[in-house]
Specification:
The protein is mainly β. Helices cover about 0% and strands about 40% of the residues. It has one helix and 33 strands. The strands form eight sheets. Strands 1, 2, 31, 32 and 33 form a five-stranded mixed sheet that branches. Strands 11, 12, 13, 14 and 15 form a five-stranded antiparallel sheet that branches. A hairpin with a 2-residue loop joins strand 32 and strand 33. The longest helix is centred in the N-terminal third of the chain and has 8 residues.
Length: about 475
């Protein structure tokens, strides 16, 4: 069904105190930026019941030449289409529009969209990418579309890569990344998934030389190898044009998933034509399955496979953050951070950066759905969700948090770093009111998406996330933290 980490899930699986922290800071009031369902007149599809209702997994972008211009995208109404919201005043006001011609509910041909992402090009244009797929599995594609006027009009979707033979598997979408040396050059890494479980897959990169209007034939980034799958690609383009792709590699087999997950990186210095041998960033020691502390219901379990990356443009340092249970002896996932100062060749030892209390029941310490950004001056920011305010009452109290580290006396990738925490959700939301994916689907359980938005701008950091707005449905919220 879903073409990113969820496909990998289906294919691979039939008390420490944080030092060097600062007190939590107050946050501005977030605002809801998603609106009413724009696809009410569209005929329901065959697998709508296996999709999350409402608006989920938002992604954000900021115009590099005008920090007041922000853009957010998300899939809505059981992933029947993509909605774009644009702000021209730094996030105080937003205007929404449906991105046209992607799905049948928006004038296209595919049934559903997965993992939409957005970026600003160097000339102020907007490029939206996404993975499209048919409900019966007959076809899938990664596509892009471009707007020159802030989302009012769009180019016809350009195919990045497509799959039309179910026996050969399917393809997923990827986020567009701009080459800092040339604003017309964009890259997208897309996974290809096998038609049968427990067979190898690979990842491919596509390049656009005209701002996302068209794409060159893809080239191979990484082959998982026999008995393995790769997924969760996060691409970084350094100032000298070096490409670094960080992704998860899963080994098939029995025993704990903790022993079969690795975060690894590959590099290219020739525009993606050839790639280095993978190097290990770290073992991903996630608990894998996230559960409601009382009921045992699964919660956002596919986020266990995903990482996020960001680069410090002052120094070229690459940061990566992900979920990891190593800091509690395997008891609960926290947020781990590692860095590379040599273009992805070597990586520092993981350190814990979330400030979830450790004097609460272990199930309430779970931290998940991680996003990462680096701001001006090298400030590193990480956002995540946790259950720290949960009790034994009817709601599963859930909050969204942001921690920030300024690289002063101590390196942000060291154990001595100081992290300031901000609560993004002034009132906890009830995860048990979130859309629930049925058990026969993947991901299953309470689901608000596999990713959230976090970007740096001149005034601080902007974050976007999904939260329940009524039983079984979700809405997107955003806030800027200065």
């Amino acid at each position: 069904m879903r073409s990113s980490a969820a496909v990998l899930v289906a294919a691979t699986f039939p008390l420490l105190t944080l030092t060097g922290t600062a007190n939590a800071a107050p946050a501005p009031e977030p605002q809801r930026i998603s609106g009413a369902n724009p696809f009410t007149d569209c005929t329901p599809g065959a697998i709508d019941g296996k999709m999350a209702d409402g608006a989920i997994e938002p992604q954000l972008a900021v115009d590099p030449h005008d920090a007041r211009r922000l853009a957010a995208v998300w899939p809505q109404d059981r992933q029947r289409g993509v909605v774009l919201a644009v702000s021209r005043d730094g996030g105080s006001n937003w205007q929404r529009t449906v991105v046209p011609n992607l799905t049948r509910c928006s004038g296209g041909s595919h049934d559903h969209v997965d993992g939409p992402a957005v970026t600003f090009t160097g000339d102020g244009g907007l490029v939206v990418t996404g993975g499209l797929f048919m409900a019966d599995g007959s076809a899938s594609a990664a596509v892009s579309t471009r707007s020159e006027d802030g989302g009012r009009t769009w180019t016809r979707p350009a195919v990045i890569v497509a799959a039309t033979e179910p026996a050969q598997g399917g393809v997923g979408g990827g986020a567009p990344v701009v080459d800092p040396r040339d604003p017309d050059v964009l890259y997208v890494v897309t996974p290809r998934f096998p038609a049968e479980a427990r067979t190898r897959n690979d990842g491919w990169i596509s390049r656009s030389a005209d701002g996302g209007r068209s794409w060159q034939p893809p080239t191979l980034v990484v082959d998982a190898g026999d008995g393995h799958l790769v997924s969760g690609h996060r691409l970084t383009v350094l100032d000298d044009g070096t490409l670094v792709d960080v992704h998860s590699r899963v080994r098939f087999g029995e025993g704990p998933i903790t022993n079969r997950l690795t975060l690894q990186a590959v590099r290219s210095t020739d525009g993606g034509r050839t790639w280095s041998t993978p190097v290990k960033v770290a073992d991903q020691r996630t608990k894998w399955l996230f559960q409601d502390p009382e009921s045992g219901e699964q919660v956002s379990h596919t986020t266990s496979l995903l990482s996020d990356t960001a680069v410090d443009r002052r120094t070229g340092r690459i940061h990566v953050a992900w979920q990891d249970a190593r800091f509690s002896g395997g008891g609960a996932d926290a947020v781990a951070l590692a860095s590379s100062d040599d273009g992805g060749r070597t990586w520092s030892e993981p350190v814990k950066v979330n400030r979830t209390p450790t004097d609460i029941p272990m199930p309430n310490q779970q931290a998940f759905t991680v996003a990462l950004a680096v701001g001006r001056g090298g400030t590193v920011a990480v956002s995540y969700s946790d259950f720290r305010r949960n009790d034994t009452g009817a709601p599963l109290l859930t909050d969204r948090w942001l921690v920030r580290c300024s690289p002063q006396a101590a390196d942000c990738a060291s154990k001595g770093a100081t992290w300031r925490e901000t609560r993004l959700t002034p009132i906890s939301f009830d995860m048990r009111q979130a859309p629930r994916i049925p058990d026969e689907a993947s991901p299953r359980g309470y689901f608000l998406g596999e990713q959230t938005g976090l970007i740096a701008n001149r005034s601080g950091f902007a974050a976007a996330w999904a939260a329940p707005d009524e039983p079984g449905s979700a809405a997107v919220h955003a806030v800027t933290v200065r």
